[in-house]
């Protein structure tokens, strides 16, 4: 069961190119967990309710992701073993409407994978300076809750959005991207 606290006020605000999901919270810059931390190999637990602690985590994650020039961040990467992901993908392709703005994915899971694969040189905030040439399914169907607790099922047809979603969900499952391909650059 999922509960959204009734007193939650949500608004996404863009201030000086930094995202504040909950405009009444002051975001904090969190320390990134980096390799070789064993925390990156642990599976994250599901969120059962969006409370003030979760709101603060989301706000802090957006702030931290932006300050580190990332496009996606899972909570485990800031030391919190919860299934929370934030993303802000450049609008370079045909994407489902939900992903055209900075977004939150809670308890995300991939429901199905397509048969065609694509290759991409991925980076990761938890592996500074490392680039991996990965091979991932192009099409996925993903289920998740947004920052208001609303259920979503989205079909993703490829590109950086598909890569980012798979990469961040892998983080919540304790899977690191170095297992998905070959080292390109250190």
Automatic annotation (TrEMBL):
Binds 1 Fe(2+) ion. Its EC number is 3.5.1.88. Pfam families: Pep_deformylase. Fe cation binds at residues 124, 167, 171. Its cofactor is Fe(2+). The keyword Transmembrane helix does not apply. It comes from the Bacteria. It catalyses: N-terminal N-formyl-L-methionyl-[peptide] + H2O = N-terminal L-methionyl-[peptide] + formate. Keywords: Hydrolase, Iron, Metal-binding, Protein biosynthesis. The active site is at residue 168. Belongs to the polypeptide deformylase family. Removes the formyl group from the N-terminal Met of newly synthesized proteins. Requires at least a dipeptide for an efficient rate of reaction. N-terminal L-methionine is a prerequisite for activity but the enzyme has broad specificity at other positions. This is Peptide deformylase. The lineage of its organism: Bacteria, Pseudomonadati, Pseudomonadota, Alphaproteobacteria, Rickettsiales.
């Amino acid at each position: 069961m999922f509960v959204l606290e009734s007193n939650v006020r949500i608004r996404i605000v863009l201030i000086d190119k930094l995202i504040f999901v909950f405009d009444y919270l002051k975001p904090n810059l969190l320390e990134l967990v980096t390799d070789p931390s064993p925390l990156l190999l642990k599976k994250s637990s599901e969120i059962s309710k969006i409370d003030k602690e979760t709101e603060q985590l989301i706000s802090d994650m957006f702030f931290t992701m932006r300050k580190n020039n990332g496009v996606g961040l899972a909570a485990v990467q800031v030391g919190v073993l919860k299934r929370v992901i934030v993303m802000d993908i450049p609008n370079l392709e045909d994407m489902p409407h939900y992903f055209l703005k900075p977004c939150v994915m809670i308890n995300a899971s991939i429901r199905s994978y397509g048969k065609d694969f694509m290759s991409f040189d991925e980076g990761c905030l938890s592996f500074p300076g490392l680039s991996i040439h990965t091979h991932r399914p192009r099409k996925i169907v993903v289920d998740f809750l947004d920052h208001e607790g609303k259920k979503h099922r989205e079909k993703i047809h490829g590109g950086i959005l598909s890569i980012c979603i798979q990469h961040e969900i892998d983080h919540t499952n304790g899977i690191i991207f170095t297992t998905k391909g070959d080292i390109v650059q250190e």
